[in-house]
């Protein structure tokens, strides 16, 4: 009896050591690539700085300047609004796309999935320049815009142009995340709901969305954070009206050399992203959608 208990204890200890060993590389990668940069930014945000100069003197002036600057608030609001709109549109387009690939494509399922994956290999800058050409006055969309009474070229250098490009860039990510979640949903479950009298709306509201809610939140947060923090797309497509706080942070580092101020703004934006994460996860817990699962 004692020997059996000792063997079980040793086996559990062995599994624990193996778990630690296997998780060590991922833990070190997370520490080096995420935790360390955040700590460095946090330290720099409390130091005095100038033009490419940093003085090791503690100060809160960087946060006062960032919070007291009306342009920073305006650009931050633009970033959060653009990120939220982009995230919602990516869900509206990516979730049905994943649903069609998983349940409606039949033999073309993996062909369509391959096409979505191939889209990710197209260069980020190539897609931005492509939309810059498409939305130009003589671009490919000019005849279509004229039909709807929109002057050709009027969308270029606006927030709408930024959103259009970002949605095009991030829809594949949302579709893949949602598709991965739908792989665990058997097609028979939807057939059973139809047999019980559920129409298309009820199937989506009562079956599909509750099962995909965590994946949808993950896809939204991923898109929201990357879109709101982007500074390349607004620089090429946004102009003055489509500028976001990421561009100002980038300018603080590269053009003005004020590293502490740029670090302070980065920390503030990161804090807002963390609050958005807490809010959405709290919403999942309050609605109970984080515990929905399929029991075989």
Observed structural traits:
12 helices, 3% strand, 296 residues, single chain
Description:
- By secondary structure, the chain is an all-alpha fold.
- Strands 1-2 form a two-stranded antiparallel sheet.
- It is globular.
- Helices cover 75% and strands 3% of the residues.
- The two termini are 36 Å apart.
- Helix 3 packs across helix 9, helix 5 runs parallel beside helix 10 and helix 7 crosses helix 9.
- It contains twelve helices and two strands, in the order αββααααααααααα.
- Strand 1 and strand 2 form a beta hairpin.
Quick structural summary:
This protein has 296 residues and is mainly alpha-helical.
Strand and helix map with partners:
Elements: H1 2-45, E1 47-49, E2 54-58, H2 61-68, H3 70-104, H4 109-119, H5 124-134, H6 142-147, H7 159-182, H8 187-195, H9 200-228, H10 232-238, H11 245-254, H12 259-287
Antiparallel strand pairs: 1-2
Helix pairs in contact: 1-12, 2-12, 3-4, 3-7, 3-9, 5-7, 5-10, 7-9, 7-10, 8-9, 9-12, 11-12
> Spans of 5+ residues with little confidence (pLDDT < 50)?
none
User: Which H/E pattern describes the elements?
Assistant: HEEHHHHHHHHHHH
Supply the helix-strand structural class. Answer: mainly alpha
Strands, count:
2
Q: What's the N-to-C terminus distance?
A: 36 Å
**Sheet having the most strands:** 2 strands, antiparallel
Shape, principal axes of CA atoms: globular
- Numbering strands along the chain, what is their spatial order in the largest sheet? 1-2
Average pLDDT: 85
The portion of residues assigned to helices is over 70%
The helix tally amounts to: 12
How large a portion of the residues is in β-strands, by DSSP E? under 5%
Gyration radius, to the nearest Å? 24 Å
